[in-house]
């Protein structure tokens, strides 16, 4: 399929690709990512398992000669005072860079390195963030509509979700007095 030029149709309002299936993550898939475990468990026990995010990956061959690309759609909402977010990841090919271009919504890209550097980049439509290799990254929706980004990275980079599942991010983004703010993650144990 990828041995000749090909066109994909993305809807910039929804981030959905008409030719490709979606991958979804609900609260159940993200239960260990949020700091407020009591709220997570109460929602799930009540049968409330909201869709937090989905993404359309175009399934290119896992080769450095190709570019992986697609759209990530993070929905609005909060668990306690923590905004809906993606799980976040490093790349298996650790020094892989990635770009995210905001199509719609208002969000943040939470970034950190294993050595403890961290950063938060704010995204609105028309703004792109460049993420150097070696930085974990997570999308966070701080707005009231879907936060839709278009991403691209080298095709063989892979995703290391396990490190984030185990350690989490050092910082969290929460709402305080109607504004987003960054706080220390109370679940972070300082393990490296």
List keywords for this structure.
3-stranded antiparallel β-sheet, 2 helices, Jelly Rolls, 192 residues, 13 strands, 6-stranded antiparallel β-sheet
Structure characterization notes:
With 192 residues, the protein is mainly beta. It has one domain (23-184): Jelly Rolls (Sandwich). It has two helices and 13 strands, in the order βαββββββββββαββ. The protein has helices spanning 37-45, 162-167, and strands at 23-26, 51-57, 67-74, 78-79, 82-83, 98-104, 107-112, 118-123, 128-131, 136-141, 147-154, 171-176, 179-184. A six-stranded antiparallel sheet has the order 1-2-3-11-6-9, with no helix packed on it. Strand 12 (171-176) and strand 13 (179-184) form a beta hairpin. The protein starts with 22 loop residues before the first strand and ends in an 8-residue tail after the last strand. The mean pLDDT is 93.
Distance between the termini: 41 Å
Helical coverage, percent range: under 10%
Report the biggest beta sheet as strand number plus sense, adding barrel if it closes: 6 strands, antiparallel
Order of helices and strands: EHEEEEEEEEEEHEE
Average pLDDT metric: 93
Rg: 16 Å
**Weakly predicted, low-confidence segments:** none
CATH architecture, please?
Sandwich
Number of helices: 2
The SS-based structural class is: mainly beta
Strand composition percent: 35-45%
In brief:
The protein is mainly beta. The chain contains two helices and 13 strands.
